[in-house]
Amino acid sequence: MISSETPSPAPGANSTGFHPEPPVFLLPPEEARAAVPQLGALLKACVEDGAGIGFILPLSQEKADAFWTGKLRALETGEAFLMVARAGGEVAGVVMLALAPQDNGPHRAEVAKLMVHPAHRRKGLARKLMSAVDGLALSLGRWLLVLDTVTGDRAEKLYPTCGYRKVGLIPDYAYGSHGDLDATTVFYKDLR
Questions:
Q1: CA distances from 114 to 3, 4, 53, 154 (A)
Q2: What's the whole-number mean pLDDT along residues 12-25?
Q3: CA distance 47 to 35
Q4: Which distant-in-sequence residues (6+ apart) come within 8 Å of 66 by Cβ?
Q5: Is the pLDDT of residue 174 over 50?
Q6: Cis peptide before 160, with omega less than 30 degrees from 0?
Q7: pLDDT of residue 40
Q8: At what angle do helices 125-139 and 154-161 cross, to 10 degrees?
């Protein structure tokens, strides 16, 4: 039997009803696709500056672009959301929110890939992105946020100032951008 009801919109950035304050923008999947070259350039610049965000040097532009292209499906299905901070029309920063897919985790999400281009640091963009990710999470009914970062990285000092609580660290968790094993520090934030 065919239903005469109007189908609900597909999950994705446009269906959240959440609108961050500029310079932060929530990118719908089609805008994220168009922004892949800028997102890739941002990723490459951050890794070359020493950010421990999952890549080892040298990082080609093609590999950086491919990373973001690989995230598009999750954006299209509503499994993840992408916000950018813009400066002068260019992507200056980014953060992702990945929803926990488990049946027992409809209240959880992971904050991932917070990056600010080295040329745009110390301007408050990381804080604006982190504040916006809180609002986005709440709009999606997600109130428990988790993240991890390289122990000793500049971001490790940022997260507690954004309300995150340190859980602990895991030694030798991943190889850093220069090929040495780094520990990771795990954080959480309860938005209730």
A1: 42, 43, 9, 12
A2: 80
A3: 18
A4: none
A5: yes
A6: no
A7: 98
A8: 50
Structure tokens at 12: 């994705």
Q: Which two tokens stand for residue 84?
A: 């950018």
Mind giving me the DSSP string for the chain?
Answer: ----SPPPPPSSGGGS---PPTTEEEEPHHHHHHTHHHHHHHHHHHHHTT--SS--SS--HHHHHHHHHHHHHHHHHTSEEEEEEEETTEEEEEEEEEE--STT-TTEEEEEEEEE-GGGTTSSHHHHHHHHHHHHHHHTT--EEEEEEETTSHHHHHHHHTT-EEEEEEEEEEE-TTS-EEEEEEEEEE--
Mean confidence (pLDDT) of the chain:
91
User: For residues 24 and 6, what is the distance between their CA atoms, to the nearest angstrom?
Assistant: 32
